[in-house]
Structure formats: structure tokens, C-alpha cells
User: What shape does this take?
Amino acid sequence: MRRLKLSERAFALLILLAYVLVAGAVTARHEIWRDEAQTFLMARDSRTVSDLLLRIRYDVHPPLWHLLLFLLTRVTSSPAAMQIVHLAIAAAAVWIFARYAPFSRLNKIFFALGYYALFEYGVIARNYSLGILFLFLFCLFYPQRHDRFLLLGACIALLSLTSIHAIILSAALILALAADRLGIRKAAAPRLFWPGLGLGLAGIGTSILSAFPHSESIYAGNMSFVFDPKTLFPVLRTIPKAFFPLPEPHLSFWNTSLLNHLPATAVTIHLLLALIVVTALVLFSRRLPAFVFYVSATAALIAFFFFHYFGYLRHHGFFFFVFLAALWLVSSPSDGTAPFAGFRGLAALSESFHKAAPAVLTLVLAVQALAGLYAAAMDIRHPFSGGLGTAKYLERNGLQDHILVGDIDYVMSSISVHLKRPIYLPRGERWGTYQLNTPSVRSNTDMNHITRAAERLSRESGRNFLLILNYPLNKFSLLTRSLRQVGKTGKAVVGDETFYLYRKLGSPLPIP
Assistant: This one.
């Protein structure tokens, strides 16, 4: 019986359809957490683009995702619209990978179900999937670089505008293109090389300027160049954890690593690290541009995590995507590029590694698919954040018009995004919908300060107040302040987004 053979286009369409169905089902059950809400609220509450760009400098992000949400919030104030747009971006990246990446069909299936594509950069609506989309577009157009160099420059510029980590990747791609130019015979030099390079550099410069922290931001002067070997090794260990993002099997699985529980943990993780790095260096020695991109991007990411901000798995995941993009580049046609003379002695070894690369990639992506499906199942089964549940409780019990006083301030955005109204934040002594990253916000406060602020606002407005806290009060605190607990959300995946609601004794609950 003759087997039906799918074309590459039909196969990619099937992967896309399956991805949209699975990721869409998880997204529909996903409760957005504070970082997702923060960006949406900044865009929604900004009156003009210049107002938004000023607010971004307190948050230290390039502006592309914020600008996209600014346009979206001129049409709708629903955060569900952000999730739909983000899912479309993630699906576009999956389509490009499934349709054009030079990898096996099995690897493409595993990638679409993987932890990053399905969950971290798929279901969770942040700016990172936009960067992955432009990184894949660069890899797609790279074989046509001699005729479409300006397009490569545009991909680099747009990539840099998505995140701080993407700026690093963009700069590494510039170096890779420069290395590629050095190895090209004069007759095969790409057209519009300098305009394309200039466009990419302009995008990087714009991104740096837009993300440069405001003088009043808590991130101003946050870079330390003190070298501490004790900090370096934890940073290096994030590389194998990024390749194998297996979470611990419990409710608070997010940003945990099962690799921390391996036998002889430190030795095992360091062996995995050495294996990954040696494999990459030998494998990419076949082509100078891929080698330059991988080494420069990986080294710069290590330096960023070491000197500036250690980050979480969503940031460390860029280690894997640098490897994946370099593998895509090294598999592209040479198209006139001379071999890298410095590595000709490794040619035989590199060829052997190149033949083994598909199997190695299958192993890595299979592990990521297990992690992705587990994370998706947990997000469907359990609340990711208690923010939506709290907002529904307020609506269900007719409490939306009460004076809402929230602490800790940085988690309140996950509630206010659903309320379409501000919450009083005692740490900053202001009404707001999201966190202000300024030194004027108190890093700590006490319940006396919070309850006095709530009582003052209640007297001034003639309305009852409701305290929304992400920590419980003990019996002594309730008795001395004449408070009673009137509600609580169930435990959430994001542990500090479980909320407790308190009212003054003698204040009856309204009948919903």
C-alpha cells in the first residue's frame, strides 16, 4: 500500500494547527501574572507614545512589545486581546521553524511542543516570543544574504527592539555578518552591505537608548563589575538548565530545575555544561559566522547575567536559542564563503559532530517537549496567578466600589488589570494599577502604616475599605486592628500571587 507523503508545506501547516489548538487551549486557561499585566497596563494607561516611552525607561525594556500593546489598547482594554496577539506571534515563529528550519520533522514536532515554544514564550505573554520570531526570520533570510542584506539588517534592528537579551543577540549577529564579509570573495560580496549593517546598528542604538534606565529608576547604576567566582559558577550552570528545562514536579514548578536534584548534582551539571560548550565550539568551527555568533552571544549573555541581573529561566533560555540559531546558520549553504582557516585542523572532528547533531538535537528537544507538556498541564489544572480569581471574587460579592488597598504593591497589577480601576498602594502612597520602579516606593512597611492609610481613605470617601494582601495576617494582627478575613484565593503556581482579603469588623458584606 502506497504511503501518503506530506509536502513540507502541508507538514508545517499540520504542526501549526496542532500548536494553535494546544497552545490556545492552555492560553484560554492561563491567568496572567504581574509581569504580563505590568506591560499591558503601562501601554493601556499611557496617553501618548512619548508618555509610554518615558514609562518604559523605569522598567528597562526596549519598546517594540510595549508599542504593539499601545496600539492594541487603543482598540480594547481586555488583557485577553494581548494573549491572542501573543499567541499569533508565537505561532508565526513555530510556522517559520516548522516550514524552513533545516532540521528533521521529528525535531520540529518536539520544538513546537517544547517548553519554550509552547509555554514560556508561548502561553505566557511577554516580549520574548517577538524576539524569537525575528531571530528565526534572520536565519530564514541568511542564505539569501547576498541579495537581501538590507532585509537582514531590518531583522537585526527589530530583534534588538524586543528585549535586553535580544540586543545582545543582535550585536552578535552584526559580528557574524562582519565575519562572513571577511570570508567572502570580492566577486561574491553582498549588495547593500553597509546600508544593511547600518540599519542593524541603528536599531541596536535605538534599543539601548530607549531601554537606558531613567535617573530615578531603581535600575539606574545597577551594573557591578566586581568579579566574584562564587557568582560565576551559578551563572554557568544556567546553560545546561536552559537546554534541559525540566521543572520540579510540584505546584510551584515554574522557574525550578530538576537538574538540581541529580545524583552528584554539581559534577553532573558541570559535565553537561562542558559537553554542551565543547560540542558547540567544535560543531560551529565549520563556519566562521556561526562560530562568531555563538561565542560572542554566549559570552555576552554570561557577562550580563554575572555583572547585571542573574535572571530566570525565561532569560536563560536565550542560551539555547543562540545554539539553535547557530546550528541553523551552520547548516545554511556556504554561498561563496571560504572555510575558516583557523579551524581546518578540526574539519574531520567537526564533520563527525555535524553528523551527530540531529540525534543530539532530538534528545534535547524531546526533553523540552516533556517539560512543555508538563508545564501546560499544570497551567490548565492549577491557577497560574490568583489575580483573576481575586477580581472575580470582588465582582461576585459587589466589592468593586470599595476602597481597595493593596500590598505588596508589585503583585497588585495581576488584579488591577482585570478591575479596570486603580488600587491604593501604601508603599508608594499612591493610587496605581502597576508597580513604579522608583526609590520612592518603600521596600518594606508595616501593617500599622497600611491600616492607617486604609482608614484615612475610608473616612475621606465615606466608603468601606478592603485590604488585599499577598500574605496572611495572624490572629493577633487581626484582633489588634479589628480586621476579619473575608476571602482567600487558592494556591497558585506563582506562589506570591495567592491573595487574602480583609475588612474592618462591623462592616457587613454587601449582598451580591
The radius of gyration is 25 Å. The chain is about 60% helix and 5% strand. The mean pLDDT is 91. Residues 347-381 form the longest helix (35 residues).
